[in-house]
Design a protein that fits this description.
The chain has 83 residues and is mostly beta strands. The chain is 8% helix and 49% strand. The model has no long low-confidence stretch (mean pLDDT 83).
């Protein structure tokens, strides 16, 4: 099995969970495995349930590059001031 990106819940704040990304050679037991356009994702079960309506994108500009998760609804409702 080739390496994949593993997404997992890394903690909680007033606005809900934060997520971590790692490179893993194999999925952790219980991970959801997704193969999309040559990219392999291993998603922790809890993270998969919370991210099921979200989108993971890679961005790159002159100053930085990385992944961003869009489409998340804050767990505290429509306002998250102070988070």
């Amino acid at each position: 099995m080739t390496e994949g990106i593993r997404i997992y819940c890394a903690g909680e704040s007033c606005c809900g969970p934060s997520y971590g990304l790692d490179i893993n050679e194999i999925p952790v037991p219980g991970d959801e495995v997704i193969n999309k356009d040559g990219l392999k994702l291993f998603i922790e079960k809890v993270a998969f349930e919370k991210l099921s309506s979200s989108q993971l994108d890679y961005y790159e500009d002159m100053e930085r590059a990385g992944f961003i998760i869009t489409g998340l609804a804050p767990s505290c409702g429509s306002s998250c001031s102070g988070c």
